[in-house]
Each structure stands twice: as C-alpha cells, then as structure tokens.
Amino acid sequence: MKVVSSKEDLTEIIDQLKAKKNSIGFVPTMGALHDGHLSLVERGFKDNSIMVVSIFVNPTQFDNKKDLDKYPRNLESDIKLLKKVSKDKIIVYAPTVEDIYGASVSSVSFSFDGLENEMEGKFRKGHFDGVGTIVKRLFEIVQPEFAYFGEKDFQQLQIIRKLVEKQHLNVKIIGCKIHREASGLAMSSRNSRLKKEYLEAAPFIYKTLNEAKKKFRKMSAQKVTKWVEAQFAKHELLKLEYFNIANVKSLKTLKRKSPKQKYRAFIAVFADDIRLIDNIALN
Ligand code: PAF
Predict the structure, then answer these.
(1) Can you spell out the DSSP letters for 235-273?
(2) Check: CATH 3.40.50.150 for 189-281?
(3) What H or E segment, with its residue span, contains residue 175?
(4) What topology is assigned to 2-176 in CATH?
(5) Whether residue 37 lies in the annotated active site
(6) Fewest CB within 10 angstroms: 9, 10, 21, 263, which?
(7) pLDDT tens readout for residues 133-188
(8) 55: CA distance to ligand 1 center in Å?
(9) Residue ranges of the chain that CATH labels 3.40.50.620
(10) How far is the centre of ligand 1, averaged over its atoms, from the C-alpha of 120 (Å)?
(11) What predicted TM-score, i.e. pTM, was given to this entire model?
C-alpha cells in the first residue's frame, strides 16, 4: 500500500494512474478508522479502480482545542485496517498541517446558503468553514471523480454538495448509509474514547431516534421534540445538546408537515465530555 505525505508525490502517482485510465475515488477522513470508513472505501471500489484515503486531523474545523488535542490518532493501525480492503489499490494520503495550510492555519469563510447556520453550525462556531476549506483543498489535490461521505454527518454531506455546486468543483458526491454497531450506536472515531458505562449507555440515542420516528407518524414535530427532550432529561448519563426535526434539503426546523417533503431527525448528545451525533430518516 502506498502511503504518501507530500502533495507533489501524490499528484505524480495520481497523474500516472489517470494516464493508464484508472478512475480515482476519494474518502477523506480524520483517521481513527473504523468499519464505517472501510465501508465507504468498499463502496468506492464499485465506481473506481483506485481509492485515495486521506488521513488528516483538520485543526480548523475544531471549535474546541481540547477536542482537537484528544482526537484519536494512529496511522499504523489505520493502514492495517485499510489493508483488509485492498493491499495495492488504496493510496493513503497523510499530509502534515504545514503541507496543507503552509504558515497560516486558518479557514476560508463560505456561504452555504444558510445550511451552515442550522444545528451543528449553531453549536460549533466556524466548524463548516473549516470543513469547506479542507475538503475543497483535498479535492484540488486529489482530483477525484467520486468522493464518498457518510450520512452520520448528514449536515456536512449536504454542505459538501452545496460546496461542489457553488464552487463548480468537478467531483460527484456519494452519500452512504450510516454504519452502526450491533447495539445500534452509530460508528464514530469518538466512540473509542467512551468509558465503559457511557459506551453501554450510548445506544439509547439510536433507540430514542427510532421511537421518535414512530411517534412522528401521528404527532407533530414539536410534540416529538418535547418527548425526546423529556427522555434525555430523565437520563442519568447522557446530556442532550439538541434534537431537531428538519427538512433534508434546507435543514430548517420543521414547522408544519407537508406530504411532499422529506424530513430527518437530528441529535447531538454529550456522553461525559464526548459529543456524539446521529440522525434518522423519518419518511
Ligand atoms: O467527516 C470527517 O471526518 C471530516 O469532517 C472530513 C470530511 C474528513 C474533513 O476533515
């Protein structure tokens, strides 16, 4: 497996592969890989002969310095996991902060037509500017035909679609289903930091989302939201940051149901100091 850290080396390898008519798929990650990431890479091989996986903990998308410092990093075990998918058709791009940002570690300010102001945008200042900056930069370096993103970060996925549309980037974005543990907990690099009692408590998040989905058939979004808030108010370990039922396109909070629109329920929860997010399609 090729592991490169400089963009010049990566560009050279990709140019050679493209000259031989390979199509390049891309999975950007922040490392601490799990089966969810591997499933994105496997999905990518349906459309592409070569997959590039970037491993880069992007400082500009963290609004919390402690979260950035504690973010799990282990390149060796990430490479080992990727080898389970393919030993010779994956290129790992693991740049340094300097390679990506040069001397100035800062993000560009984007407008994503208001998508950036909902949910995560309210609680994580500057987060989507950081995501937009790094994803655009990585697309420019990797020049993939397709890029794959998980629906766990559904707001991020919609924002990246908007980024591609507004910046006229030449890449097709593929959204992939959430990968879950047997317990229902959405797979996340952050799960590895959960202490035992919190790991055992965390499947409550998906269980509550499923119950909310059932209630949504008969109840208003406001009533379902109140019900979810009450469930978490009673919970001893998990602290709800937000629960929100929103339109999948605008990401705006649902006021009145329309049979023609698609909705999702979104949730952010603190388990100790670890922030977990999840979402579920409602119709
Ligand atoms: O979803 C992630 O892991 C990150 O936000 C991404 C897309 C790799 C950008 O740093």
Answers:
(1) -SSEEEEEEEEEETTT-PBPSS--TTS-EEEEEEEEETT
(2) no
(3) strand 172-176
(4) Rossmann fold (3.40.50)
(5) yes
(6) 21
(7) 999 999 999 999 999 999 999 999 999 999 999 999 999 999 999 999 999 999 99
(8) 9
(9) 2-176
(10) 14
(11) 0.97
